[in-house]
Amino acid sequence: MKAVLWKGPDSLAVEDVADLRPEPGEMLLEVKNCGICGSDLHAAKLGLTLVPDCIMGHEFSGVIAELGQGVTGWRVGERVAPLPLHSCGGCERCKAGEVTFCTRGARAIGWGDIPGAYAEYARVSPQDLVRLPENVSFRQGALVEPLAVGLHAVRQARMQAGAGVVVMGGGPIGQVCTLWAKREGAGCVVVSDPAEGRRKLAERLGADLVVDPGKQDPRSSLFDACGREPDVIFECVGVPGTINEAVQMAGIQGRVVVVGVCMEPDTLMPVIGIMKEVELKFVLAYTKGEFQEVVDALAGGGLNADAMITDVIGVEGVPDAFKALAIPNTQSKVMVEF
Ligand SMILES: [Zn+2]
Ligand SMILES: [Zn+2]
Fold first, then answer.
1. Which tens digits make up the pLDDT trace of 279-291?
2. Does the residue 300 lie in any domain?
3. For residue 170, is it within any domain?
4. Nearby residues of 237 by Cβ (< 8 Å), 6 or more positions away
5. Which ligand is nearest to the CA of 127?
6. Is the separation of the CB atoms in 5 and 54 below 8 Å?
7. How many domains does the structure of the chain reveal?
């Protein structure tokens, strides 16, 4: 099968590799679409958990091609969107749908352990995927994973109807937070990003107001627009200093939801948060229930995220796409299609 292999820092190659077979208890998936994620770019550069010749790709959809030994409840040909992991399915966390925190240690797809979906086929776990109805396209199916990140972040924000919201950072994660904040009843959402292309896209996805943080203060822009202090701030940048900025921006008893992944030590001024009783909440991934909810929302027609997809490429285009995405540009979600 054709696959994109990670060779080492900043080095990807498209090669023909041995066909995958499902291990007992697994299924083989024919991959239809896989989105390129910002964290793939980080990992490709830094290595992190990757090992040479591993296959990345964790935002994907496809068709079940083969059932491994002992698998029941699924048929070859079913359209699905997998969660990018193999959980144990039996521990308390898994039973509650919190598969990311599987106490036996969920194995990740696309991070150096189980091969990912920048490939024609992938090995998936029967308890960690959801069916795609006919009216949800494979491209939309590959958006379920990032959309679920946004839904989880917004649920963890415990947002009240009519809330004033600031989304710091208009990349794909800021975009999914914007979509769900509006859908879950935010009164006013201000998206702040220095890149004009991202601000335009945030507007198409429902932001009430977009600002360039170098020129306008998101907090006063929100106040001018709807007379509210920020009740919730989604930090979707993930570089040192942004959590402190978010705490400074928050209103009285406001909540800062940290979705951006900062990999360096950071500092913040606690007294600023104390004086306003700001709540700080870190979030990771999603539950299986939220994953299903995203599919239901896409099938119901009320959630339109198609504007997030700015490019569709073949698997041969992946190495060049990684290089292009490393430099700020107008691309948002680049979708690999098989
Ligand atoms: Zn991702
Ligand atoms: Zn488990």
1. 999 999 999 999 9
2. no
3. yes
4. 168, 169, 260
5. 2
6. yes
7. 2
197 CA distance to ligand 1 centroid (A)? 21
- pLDDT at position 302: 86
How far does residue 35's CA lie from ligand 1's centre (Å)? 8
Report the C-alpha gap between 183 and 190 in whole angstroms.
14
Question: For residue 21, what is the domain's CATH number?
Answer: 3.90.180.10
Instruction: Identify whether residues 101 and 177 lie together within a single domain.
Output: no
Residues with Cβ–ion distance below 5 A, ligand 2: 87-88, 91, 94, 102, 104
State in Å: Cα 100 to ligand 2 middle: 8
Residue type, 72: T
Answer for the pair 35, 83: CB distance below 8 angstroms, yes or no.
no
Helices (runs of H) and strands (runs of E) counted in the chain: 11, 17
Q: What residue has token string 């599987």?
A: 102
Confidence of residue 226 (pLDDT cuts 50, 70, 90): very high
CA 25 to centroid of ligand 2, rounded, Å: 15
pLDDT given for residue 171 in this prediction: 94
Rounded to the nearest whole angstrom, what is the distance from the C-alpha of residue 145 to the centroid of ligand 1? 7
Could you tell me the distance, in angstroms and rounded to a whole number, from the CA of residue 253 to the centre of ligand 2? 35
In whole numbers, what is the pLDDT of the chain averaged over residues?
97
pTM over 0.90: yes
- Judged against a pLDDT cut of 90, whether residue 120 lies above it is answered with yes
Q: How far is the CA of 159 from the centre of ligand 2 (A)?
A: 29
CA of 4 to the centre of ligand 1 (A): 17
